[in-house]
C-alpha cells in the first residue's frame, strides 16, 4: 500500500473510532408517529366543483382528511359543499385569488407572474386568506403555488416570492415535482408536490416505494376528482390508495399537509 493510500485508510479508521455514531446517524430515518415508515398527504388545487361534490364525500367515507387549496371565487360556486368539508375536518388552504401563472400560458396572460411584484403578490395572498375566512370561518395555514410558479417579474428584475409564502404560511407546495420531501432537510415553503392526476394505483405505488426508501413525506397533488377528463384524480385509484395506506402493515401515516408539517417542525433535529 502506498503511503498516500495508507494515510487515507488510517484517517478513515480514526473517524470511525472516534466518531462511532456518525455513520449510523447518516442512516437513521425520521421517526414518524406510531412507528409509521412514511407520511402521505393528499392535496387538491383550485376548489374544482368535483372536489366538493364528489371527492370530499368520498374521502369522508374512509375517514380520510385531505388538503384543499382554494381559489375563493371558485369555492363560492360550491359554498355549501365547502362548509361541509370544513365541518368534516378537511384542511383548507390558500391558492391565491387570481391563480397567477406564467404568461407563457395564453390563458394566464391577464394575471401573468411576469407582471407581478412582491408587494402585489403579498396583498393578493392576504386578501385570499381574508375571503376564505369570511366564507368558511378558517384562516388557511398552507399554500400551493399556482402552476408551481414561485417567481414574480422578468429578466434581471425576477424575484422569488417563496419568502412571502414563508412569512404568511406554514407551508408552500409546488407542482409537478420529481421526488418526495425529506423531513429532516426540506424547506416548508417549498414542499414538493407530485402529480396524481391521470395515474393508476401502480404508478402512485411506485412513488410510495420511492418515498419508503428514505422514510420521507410524499405530498400528492391533483385537481378534478372523478374517473375521466383532463387533470382528474381517479376515484378508482384513490380507493386502492386509501385502502393500501390504511393497512397497518404498510406503515403509512395518511394526514393533511398542515398536520404533517406541524409534526415535522416539532420533531426535527
Automatic annotation (TrEMBL):
The keyword Signal applies. Keywords: Signal. Residues 38-255 form the NodB homology domain. Pfam families: Polysacc_deac_1. InterPro entries: Glyco_hydro/deAcase_b/a-brl, NODB_dom, Polysacc_deacetylase_ArnD. Residues 1-25 form the signal peptide. One of its GO terms (biological process) is carbohydrate metabolic process. One of its GO terms (molecular function) is hydrolase activity, acting on carbon-nitrogen (but not peptide) bonds. It comes from the Bacteria. This is Polysaccharide deacetylase. It comes from Dyadobacter luticola. The lineage of its organism: Bacteria, Pseudomonadati, Bacteroidota, Cytophagia, Cytophagales.
Amino acid at each position: 500500500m502506498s503511503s498516500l493510500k495508507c494515510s487515507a485508510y488510517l484517517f478513515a479508521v480514526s473517524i470511525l473510532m472516534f466518531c462511532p455514531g456518525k455513520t449510523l446517524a447518516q442512516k437513521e430515518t425520521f421517526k414518524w408517529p406510531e412507528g409509521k415508515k412514511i407520511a402521505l398527504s393528499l392535496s387538491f388545487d383550485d376548489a374544482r366543483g368535483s372536489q366538493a361534490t364528489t371527492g370530499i364525500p368520498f374521502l369522508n367515507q374512509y375517514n380520510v382528511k385531505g388538503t384543499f387549496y382554494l381559489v375563493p371565487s371558485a369555492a363560492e360556486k360550491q359554498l355549501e359543499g365547502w362548509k361541509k368539508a370544513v365541518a368534516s375536518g378537511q384542511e383548507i388552504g390558500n391558492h391565491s385569488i387570481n391563480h397567477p401563472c406564467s404568461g407563457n400560458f395564453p390563458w394566464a396572460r391577464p394575471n401573468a407572474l411576469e407582471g407581478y411584484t412582491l408587494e402585489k403578490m403579498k396583498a393578493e395572498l392576504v386578501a385570499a386568506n381574508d375571503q376564505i375566512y369570511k366564507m368558511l370561518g378558517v384562516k388557511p395555514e398552507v399554500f400551493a403555488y399556482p402552476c408551481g410558479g414561485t417567481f414574480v417579474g422578468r429578466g434581471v428584475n425576477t424575484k422569488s416570492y417563496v419568502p412571502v409564502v414563508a412569512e404568511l404560511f406554514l407551508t408552500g407546495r409546488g407542482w409537478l415535482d420529481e421526488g418526495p420531501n425529506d423531513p429532516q432537510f426540506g424547506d416548508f415553503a417549498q414542499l414538493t408536490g407530485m402529480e396524481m392526476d391521470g395515474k393508476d394505483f401502480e404508478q402512485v405505488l411506485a412513488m410510495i416505494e420511492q418515498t419508503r426508501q428514505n422514510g420521507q413525506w410524499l405530498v400528492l397533488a391533483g385537481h378534478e376528482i372523478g374517473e375521466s377528463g383532463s387533470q382528474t384524480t381517479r376515484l378508482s385509484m384513490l380507493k386502492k390508495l386509501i385502502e393500501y395506506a390504511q393497512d397497518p402493515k404498510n406503515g403509512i401515516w395518511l394526514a393533511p399537509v398542515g398536520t404533517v408539517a406541524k409534526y415535522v417542525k416539532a420533531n426535527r433535529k
